[in-house]
Structures are given as C-alpha cells and as structure tokens.
Amino acid sequence: MDRFGILTSHRDLASQDTIVSFLITWLVLAICLLIAAKLTGEGEGFLTALLASLVASIVYGLTQYLLGGTLGVILAIILASAVIAAFYRTRWIKGLIIGILALLLAWLVNLLIGSF
Prior knowledge:
The chain is mostly helical. 80% of the residues lie in helices and 0% in strands. The protein has one domain.
C-alpha cells in the first residue's frame, strides 16, 4: 500500500484476501461451535464460541505442525476437545461431541455455500 492506503501490488491484495478469508472462516466456525454447544445444552454465548474456536484451531494447528501423522491428528483432536471443554466448563468427552457437531455443521455450510 502506498501512503494513502491504496493497494499498489498484487501482494497487498493477496494479503488482504487472506485476512478476510481467515476472518470469515473463523466467524463461520464460531457460529457452528455456538450452534453445536446449544444443541448439547450449553448456555454460553457467542464470545465463548469465538474464543474457543480460535484457541482450539491454534492448538490443533500447532499440534499437527509439531507432530504430524496419525499420532498428531489423534493428539490434536484430544487437545482441541480439551480446549472446547475448558471454555464450556464441561468434561472433555462433551467437548469432543461439541467439536464434532461443530465440524459437521461447518462441513454442511461448506457443502451448501461453497468453500471457505
């Protein structure tokens, strides 16, 4: 960007697209997490869903990056479930159920409106 905030290269545009894509994906996942939590009887609100989805995604991504493979996937799912459970003050198995429901809802949204 130049000093007036006008895009001056394709790299600036790609960077902005990445940020917008991240924010939209985060918002959709948070809404799916909120719906999944409500379906399982949890009473927390949207802010909890936003924070839980962000922290769980970071934990999942870091675990996958550091370990990789099947062990990394299993451990990442367990840790993400624990994060969700902590935010919703429930047991980790219910956190796993909420996480799976949220991912199924996100998959359905992706199927209906396209890739995000």
